Amino acid sequence: MNKNPYEVLGVARDASDADIKKAYHKLVMKYHPDRNPDNKDAEEKFKEVNNAFDILKDPQKRAAYDRFGDAAFANANGAGAGFGGGNPFGNGGFHFNMGGGAGMEDILREAMRGFGFGDFGGGAQRGTPQRGGRDLLDEIVIDLKDAYFGKTHTVKFSSNVTCEKCHGNGTADGKPAPVCTRCGGSGFVQTRQGFFAMETPCPECNGLGHKISKKCSECDGTGVEHKQRTLEVKIPAGIEDGARLRLAGQGEAGANGGPAGDFYLDIRIRPDKRFERRGNDLIMRMDVPFTTLALGGEIEIETIDDKKLSVKVPNGTQVGERLRVRGKGMPSVRRAGSFGDLYIEIGVKIPTKLTDKQKKILTEFADTKSEKKGWF
């Protein structure tokens, strides 16, 4: 029995697309095989999550499930095809060719659309059914300095890839499989019952449109194999926390020559001990001797790129004020050569041990307050 996709993802039936994607990404990371090696339960959960998302991400599939439940995804023989087992709106379901006038066909077409189904009749898709590969998602945590300079990150994972031996054709000789003689490559056979002409998946080729006589020994005719993979992902300088990088076509291989999915890498940035980031600006706290704040002077700081920099402190600078150093913040990921600013938030160093001479000077200074009010 198929599991309720809403329950699998832990979302309500009226959940938004954004909520569904968020729940999917969270669960797929939790149960990913690379994070749960040799864990059969996690592997099964991973499949359930992907199958549930396969339904809920597609507006037509979701509408059909909401109306008909698992019955919306039953194949021609009545057996449940599973969440990812077929598309009732394409080659996997029934198609009706009307023998009557165009008016009746239009009426039935609109009625079918009202129930969440796609077009039928002459508009039905023909040929070998292709299915795109699944998207893959991973996440890394980097330091703020890595985000400043940018870096290349190596990702290692396992996924389905196009079989090298048969080039994805599933045949022993690696050549495309011959067209099915019964359906002529359409994947469907037609039977007529009075007014209706019904098309069902060809029983000879199971709706594939081709028939493999001798399967590839490497992939057993599937056209894909599971392998360890390595990807080099270039993380651009200035990338922000929560950013997502997309590598088109680097996801899992598609079935029957379908397009490969995409690979996504989510970026998280660790909090830095010295700098707080706000957009492309950086903020650092610096304790300065109170004499420097009162009289003015210079302080030396170390920027995020490990360079020493002398910064002028105006006399009368107050605790909590910020000194701005232009162009010493984070690089912009959108505008090459553009940098944010560095802000130095001023604190104060209070001496804990004073000599007798220093105490005398400070006492004399304090006495001047009563003689000349307003020196603050």
Features:
single chain, 376 residues, alpha+beta, Helix Hairpins, HSP40/DNAj peptide-binding domain, four-stranded mixed β-sheet, three-stranded antiparallel β-sheet, 8 helices, 14 strands, elongated
Radius of gyration: 33 Å
Quickly give the structural class: alpha+beta
The helix-strand sequence is: HHHHEHEHEEEEEEEEHEEEEH
Helical content (DSSP H or I, runs of 4+): 10-25%
Number of helices: 8
CATH 2nd-level architecture of the largest domain: Sandwich
Sheet with most strands: strand arrangement? 9-10-14-13
**Mean pLDDT score, rounded?**
80
Instruction: Please give the alpha-carbon distance between the first and last residues.
Output: 79 Å
Tell me the name of the CATH homologous superfamily of the largest domain. Answer: Urease metallochaperone UreE, N-terminal domain
Task: Look at the structure and give the CATH class of the largest domain.
Answer: Mainly Beta
Low-confidence stretches: 75-128
What characteristic shape results from the CA principal axes?
elongated
Beta-strand portion reads: 25-35%
Number of separate structural domains:
3
CATH topology of the largest domain: HSP40/DNAj peptide-binding domain
Query: How many strands, which pairing sense, and closed or not: the largest β-sheet?
Result: 4 strands, mixed
